[in-house]
Recover the amino acids of this structure.
């Protein structure tokens, strides 16, 4: 059986390129002309621009968002015997890097309304071995970072904000990425600010931490050939930096367009039986990397939409504690009831800056027909 024609893609990266084609092509040509493929002026320019956009003093670019988490933890001195608290619902980068840094990952549940890390559960997971907390601003919604900071300060813990999905999101009028000791970003192509390949960055206001992170990501040295420590090789290449510099000035406009599409979804889906629409927590500015609904028969709804050419996603089909790689921890559903329930119900609908009002209508009408049994 042939696949149905795609009416609404989950994202449309090619349309973004077409919009910026002349600028992106010129940026790529400039990198080639200057042979500035590794380090160099294009990387330095983007680091400076992105630090200013977030509102911090330092940006350390790296190869991807996963490396960003690992580099930040290694620079903070994480190692054997340490415990790091992370939310049960996130992409595996958040947790696997804790283990890679030598520490024990400690999961906690998420809030039922915002899906972000639950500060009340965090309080129950702190032990004398806890050294830090990684709140994830999931789907583009800021976590309750004020409560997380209060817990961290009381127990002398560091905080790394995982901002991989939350470029320009805000909490209480302040940009995410400015609350913790450091914050990590991914520029994977599908992110709100995406490169044309893998790319990442860490931001901080701590000059000494920035230097340690830079050193660790550059083979342990700030000057080529002078290796003060053993590090890794994690670099943002010049081509991706130049492309990101072209895209960054458009991010605010793209974010507002995502807001508009999210408002249309929320308005059109309101009142449909069995559909739970996203909730925005107090003092939080969502940037809608993903628009995630819930339905009790999620898989049937998804299959129905797919058959009509509407692409969807599941973020994520298995909560982290229940993945095979964490079986050794022996967790049970009752340990993380919210995250466990989410994994069976959540569905990510198409949303991207170039999405049209008509596309939103196609999606919501299809959902309504399914829910009404017509």
């Amino acid at each position: 059986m042939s696949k149905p024609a795609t009416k609404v893609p989950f994202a449309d990266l090619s349309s973004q390129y077409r919009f910026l084609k002349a600028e992106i092509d010129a940026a790529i040509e400039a990198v080639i002309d200057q042979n500035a493929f590794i380090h160099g002026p294009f990387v330095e320019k983007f680091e400076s621009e992105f630090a200013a956009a977030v509102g911090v003093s330092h940006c350390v670019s790296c190869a991807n968002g996963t490396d960003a988490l690992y580099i930040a933890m290694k620079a903070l001195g994480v190692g054997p015997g340490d415990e790091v608290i992370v939310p049960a619902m996130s992409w595996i980068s958040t947790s696997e890097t804790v283990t890679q840094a030598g520490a024990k990952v400690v999961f906690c549940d998420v809030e039922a309304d915002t899906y972000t890390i639950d500060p009340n559960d965090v309080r129950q997971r702190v032990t004398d071995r806890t050294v830090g907390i990684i709140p994830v601003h999931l789907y583009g919604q800021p976590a309750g970072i004020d409560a997380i900071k209060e817990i961290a300060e009381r127990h002398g813990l560091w905080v790394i904000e995982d901002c991989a999905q939350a470029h320009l999101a805000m909490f209480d009028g302040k940009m995410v990425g400015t609350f913790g000791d450091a914050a990590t970003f991914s520029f994977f192509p599908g992110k709100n600010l995406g490169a044309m390949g893998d790319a990442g960055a860490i931001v901080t206001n701590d000059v000494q931490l920035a230097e340690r992170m830079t050193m660790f990501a550059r083979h342990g040295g700030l000057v080529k050939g002078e290796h003060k420590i053993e590090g890794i090789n994690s670099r943002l290449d010049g081509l991706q930096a130049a492309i990101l510099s072209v895209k960054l000035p458009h991010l605010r406009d793209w974010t507002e367009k995502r807001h508009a599409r999210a408002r249309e979804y929320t308005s059109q889906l309101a009142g449909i039986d069995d559909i739970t629409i996203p909730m925005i927590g107090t003092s939080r500015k969502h940037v809608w990397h993903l628009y995630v609904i819930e339905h009790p028969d999620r898989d049937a709804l998804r299959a129905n939409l797919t058959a009509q050419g509407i692409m969807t996603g599941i973020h994520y089909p298995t909560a982290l504690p229940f993945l095979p790689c964490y079986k050794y921890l022996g967790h049970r559903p009752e340990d993380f009831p919210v995250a466990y329930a989410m994994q069976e119900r959540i569905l990510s609908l198409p949303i991207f800056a170039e999405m049209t009002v008509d596309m939103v209508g196609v999606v919501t009408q299809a959902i309504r027909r399914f829910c009404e049994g017509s």
